[in-house]
Design the sequence.
């Protein structure tokens, strides 16, 4: 990485904007783009992100190429970044986590829809060389809703529950983001790529907003029960963030990816019960596994999905995507970050 940076000519150093850059995925992307020799501006309101996530970048050899702006995205775009131009924009800021959506639906729906609309308009008008900025929109496997098909491929139907079930508001808000991004691409030639992440996991992810793996790792380290919602037979595919982040940059560099929706994640299913068992085995923890009914976890009427597995044909074809990090490595890496106290 250092060699690449040293040999990168000034003209090749991109100006990158990362919204949500103090978050879990965004902070890893910040590290990666800086290591590649690019200049990075992070905008984050620290609602679920943490300044600590950027501590390595701010203390590292590329710190001079990093600018961090704390604040709500819409306000920062209109005020502090109004005269700026960017080559690449990575839009990761969003209200995330099932628990947060259930608890604060207004803030979540507004943040996901209104901020993305503003961001797309900003990207169209603030590119370098007089053109629009190349833009990546982070979407979610939730967009597939409760479709029973396996695996999910990008052109499949999306199937949602009623508007009275908050669970689907996140999926719908992300689907609107996708429609808007595709509309900007079709109508105004905005160079945009949309990534649908399946469960992305790794160091710096926290369990506070319902994310299952850090929640399990934290419980295993503390010796308290691992709460498995429902019967634990539901399966998910977990992919390490360190496999995901380079793929984002490679997709942005692929003209063929523009205007496309691309699944990104692992395609190896693991049941939630098995996930709990693998956490306990990897960390040699004696914590018990405790089933919790969905109603108790999320309130009455919560609907979950039995399976969620991506078809990765498109990602493989575009960038040769092939995630390689074993789940046990990810579990150990999360445990390491949870054990180490945040920097003073
Ligand atoms: N982690 C996953 O498994 C996963 C799965 C599907 C989709 N995604 C998507 O990937 C993106 C990143 O998710 P993450 O897991 O890193 O979550 P995260 O919560 O760590 O990151 C989101 C970041 O956005 C910031 N943010 C939220 N609203 C903001 C606003 N109005 N203005 C400025 N900053 C704001 C938060 O403070 C946070 O740092 C999100 O768009 C999310 O929907 C993630």
Sequence:
């Amino acid at each position: 990485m250092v060699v690449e940076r040293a040999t990168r000519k000034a003209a090749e150093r991109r100006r990158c904007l990362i919204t949500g850059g103090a978050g879990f995925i965004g902070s890893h992307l910040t590290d990666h783009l800086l290591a590649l020799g690019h200049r990075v501006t992070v905008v984050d309101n620290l609602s679920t992100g943490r300044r600590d996530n950027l501590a390595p970048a701010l203390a590292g050899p590329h710190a001079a190429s990093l600018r961090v702006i704390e604040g709500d995205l819409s306000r920062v775009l209109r005020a502090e970044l109004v005269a700026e131009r960017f080559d690449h924009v990575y839009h990761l800021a969003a209200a995330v986590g099932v628990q947060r959506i259930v608890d604060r639906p207004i803030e979540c729906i507004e943040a996901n829809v209104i901020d993305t609309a503003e961001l797309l308009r900003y990207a169209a008008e603030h590119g370098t060389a007089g053109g629009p900025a190349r833009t990546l929109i982070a979407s979610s496997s939730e967009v597939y809703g409760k479709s029973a098909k396996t695996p999910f491929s990008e052109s499949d139907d999306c199937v949602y529950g009623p508007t009275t079930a908050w669970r689907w508001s996140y999926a719908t808000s992300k689907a609107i983001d996708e429609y808007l991004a595709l509309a900007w691409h079709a109508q105004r030639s905005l160079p945009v790529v949309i990534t649908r992440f399946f469960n992305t996991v790794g160091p710096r992810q926290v369990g506070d907003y319902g994310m299952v793996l850090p929640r399990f790792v934290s419980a295993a380290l503390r010796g308290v029960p691992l709460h498995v919602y429902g019967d634990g037979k539901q399966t998910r595919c977990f992919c390490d963030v360190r496999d995901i982040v380079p793929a984002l940059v490679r997709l942005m560099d692929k003209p063929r990816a523009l205007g496309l929706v691309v699944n990104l994640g692992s395609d190896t299913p693991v049941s939630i019960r098995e996930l709990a068992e693998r956490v306990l085995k990897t960390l040699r923890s004696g914590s018990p596994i405790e089933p919790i009914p969905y109603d108790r976890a999320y309130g009455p009427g919560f609907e979950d999905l039995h399976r969620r597995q991506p078809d990765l044909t498109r990602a493989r074809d575009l960038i040769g995507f092939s995630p390689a990090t074993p789940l046990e490595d990810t579990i150990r890496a999360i445990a390491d970050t949870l054990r180490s106290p945040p920097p003073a």
Remarks:
- The chain has 13 helices and 13 strands.
- Residues 20, 22-26, 43-49, 72-73, 92-96, 111, 115, 138, 140, 197, 199-200 surround nicotinamide-adenine-dinucleotide (CB under 6 Å).
- Residues 63 and 114 are 31 Å apart (CA to CA).
